[in-house]
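Posted in: Protein Modeling Q&A

I'm a second-year student putting together a small comparison for a lab meeting, and my supervisor asked me to include a predicted structure for Putative lipoprotein, SmpA / OmlA family. I've never done this before, so apologies if this is the wrong subforum. The sequence is pasted below exactly as I got it from our records. If anyone can share the structure token output, I'd also love a short note on what stands out.
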Amino acid sequence: MGYRFLYALLPVFLLFGCGYRLSVLQGLPYEQSDIKSISVGSSREDVYRILGSPNFFDPFHASCEGYFHKHSAMHQQYVLWLCFDDSGRVVSSTSS
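Accepted answer (user: helix_wrangler)
Welcome! Here is the predicted structure, written out as tokens:
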């Protein structure tokens, strides 16, 4: 009799464990001051020194690189796109 009760409660306990969500930080965390220090004309080496290596590259635009930062607990996501010219200088930056 006691085992039936335990078997009936087992799914309830397993379902209660599904409600917890971990706070996961993805990508490279960067500050707004880091983004402001990168301007049009900055070299690729300066960008790598400030932000590190990029998270992803655009397969259709070989000269563009992307930086991604997501914090799941605060429901925030930031994407920074930097495009370089042939000499390795920033020609445009887009952040969201």
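A couple of things worth pointing out for your meeting: The longest strand covers residues 76-84. DSSP finds three helices and five strands in the chain.
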